[in-house]
């Protein structure tokens, strides 16, 4: 009986240590992601992915012909009702202001939802990804590096470096690659 209790206590202690080590690893990964400003990067990535490509919405707000066409294409009854309410409540003389306000309000709401999703991605998915790719010792090494001035410089230059890489590939290699 004493032997079984001892074995059970050993198992519980080992499981407890394992859970504690996993929590510590996740916390250190979270520290690393904060140092790397990964939340800002994730938010920007999610915002970029959520934008329709090459659409300039300001043209809808200035061209009355486009505005008329746009209003005939709106099939969402709640959006039309919102437009009517805003026009009634604010006394807009045209639909231009109403549509612009609704669009900007929707963008603000979408922006908040996108930020929440990006933070969730950073706090859950990235931590999971890093925990499968790096040991706790490697995470600690990265934290030390990114806390140095060189690590901080690298982080601040990553967007510029990525732009330079993309531009260089486009300028030097895109034509060749398209010909393959």
Number of helices: 9
Amount of beta strand: under 5%
Mean pLDDT across all residues, rounded?
76
Number-wise, the strands total 0
By secondary-structure content and strand pairing, the structural class works out as mainly alpha
**Unreliable sequence segments:** 59-63
Distance separating the two termini: 74 Å
What composes the largest sheet? Answer: none
> Helix proportion of residues, in percent?
over 70%
What's the number of domains? Answer: 2
Note the run of SSEs as H and E: HHHHHHHHH
Please tell me what the overall shape is.
extended
Tell me the Rg in angstroms: 26 Å
Give your account of this protein's structure.
The longest helix has 39 residues, at 95-133. The chain has helices at 2-35, 38-50, 58-62, 64-73, 77-90, 95-133, 136-146, 149-172, 174-178. The N and C termini lie far apart (74 Å). With 180 residues, the protein is mainly α. It has nine helices and no strands. The relative contact order is 0.10. The protein folds into two domains: 2-147, no CATH class; 151-180.
Brief characterization of the structure:
This protein has 180 residues and is an all-alpha fold. It contains nine helices and no strands.
């Amino acid at each position: 009986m004493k032997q079984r209790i001892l074995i059970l206590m050993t198992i519980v202690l080992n499981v407890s240590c394992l859970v504690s080590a996993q929590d510590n690893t996740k916390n250190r990964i979270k520290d690393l992601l904060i140092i790397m400003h990964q939340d800002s990067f994730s938010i920007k990535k999610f915002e970029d992915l959520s934008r329709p490509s090459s659409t300039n919405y300001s043209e809808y707000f200035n061209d009355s012909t486009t505005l008329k066409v746009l209003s005939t294409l709106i099939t969402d009854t709640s959006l039309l009702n919102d437009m009517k309410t805003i026009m009634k409540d604010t006394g807009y003389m045209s639909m231009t202001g109403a549509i612009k306000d609704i669009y900007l309000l929707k963008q603000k709401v979408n922006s908040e939802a996108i930020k929440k999703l990006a933070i969730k991605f950073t706090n859950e998915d990235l931590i999971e990804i890093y925990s499968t790719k790096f040991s706790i010792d490697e995470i600690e090494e990265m934290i030390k590096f990114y806390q140095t001035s060189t690590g901080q410089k690298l982080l601040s230059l990553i967007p510029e470096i990525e732009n330079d890489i993309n531009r260089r590939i486009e300028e030097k290699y895109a034509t060749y690659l398209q010909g393959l």
